[in-house]
């Protein structure tokens, strides 16, 4: 029983790392209907900027502030140079634009800051701690706390501020939002900036776990089953999807791995997501689209 609980709790905590990546997708998809494939590249850009600044002797707090400033500039540039000219284009066109954007960001970031593997020290030791007889990773526990605080902050932003109301208005009906004077271009800039800040948090945690390197941008692929399971339009769904994926992967590796030769973790989440597509295509908390013909 202890093994089951330890595996389950460890998987749930690890799943919060997936949720952090998925939240960035949800924010942009809710506000603009764009599946932003470049979110992984933004995560890499944020982590690489931070570690490059700290390597130059910049204090961590100042490095975070400068990285946020760089993300704001990037967000404004994306809105001005890509989103605004492509307004009212098809979702596939916008998706392909973000796909190209991801390669541009990765190439420019690594060209300016180097492609070697960098280590991030957040002062969090990845050591085991005991809760009774259950062994838990301290790093995963802190990452879960950060994810919870981030979700609380985003909930307050969306539900208790004027900007949040505007964001939800644009997400619900873009034309109606425009008719009452909401500046959609400004909203897109804000959403991409917030998604960039989420990417910064995720990038720092993932970078501390596996180092800042090119493959860091590929965590975007791990967010796909999380989004399919939780839903593309719900921040809560991103958290729930991450927890489900993390727990399912850990339990499958422990209990099915010995019978299948191990190596279940890389593909099991996609099998789970495929099952959800058959049962609930919109995800647990997603909004099913209704088309009138």
TrEMBL record:
<feature type="transmembrane region" description="Helical">
    <location>
        <begin position="60"/>
        <end position="82"/>
    </location>
</feature>
<feature type="transmembrane region" description="Helical">
    <location>
        <begin position="12"/>
        <end position="29"/>
    </location>
</feature>
<keyword id="KW-0812">Transmembrane</keyword>
<keyword id="KW-0472">Membrane</keyword>
<dbReference type="GO" id="GO:0006865">
    <property type="term" value="P:amino acid transport"/>
</dbReference>
<feature type="transmembrane region" description="Helical">
    <location>
        <begin position="94"/>
        <end position="115"/>
    </location>
</feature>
<feature type="transmembrane region" description="Helical">
    <location>
        <begin position="187"/>
        <end position="206"/>
    </location>
</feature>
<dbReference type="Pfam" id="PF02653">
    <property type="entry name" value="BPD_transp_2"/>
</dbReference>
<keyword id="KW-1003">Cell membrane</keyword>
<dbReference type="InterPro" id="IPR001851">
    <property type="entry name" value="ABC_transp_permease"/>
</dbReference>
<keyword id="KW-0029">Amino-acid transport</keyword>
<keyword id="KW-0813">Transport</keyword>
<keyword id="KW-1133">Transmembrane helix</keyword>
<comment type="similarity">
    <text>Belongs to the binding-protein-dependent transport system permease family. LivHM subfamily.</text>
</comment>
<dbReference type="GO" id="GO:0022857">
    <property type="term" value="F:transmembrane transporter activity"/>
</dbReference>
<dbReference type="GO" id="GO:0005886">
    <property type="term" value="C:plasma membrane"/>
</dbReference>
<feature type="transmembrane region" description="Helical">
    <location>
        <begin position="135"/>
        <end position="158"/>
    </location>
</feature>
<protein>
    <submittedName>
        <fullName>Branched-chain amino acid ABC transporter permease</fullName>
    </submittedName>
</protein>
<dbReference type="InterPro" id="IPR052157">
    <property type="entry name" value="BCAA_transport_permease"/>
</dbReference>
<feature type="transmembrane region" description="Helical">
    <location>
        <begin position="259"/>
        <end position="279"/>
    </location>
</feature>
<feature type="transmembrane region" description="Helical">
    <location>
        <begin position="34"/>
        <end position="54"/>
    </location>
</feature>
<feature type="transmembrane region" description="Helical">
    <location>
        <begin position="226"/>
        <end position="247"/>
    </location>
</feature>
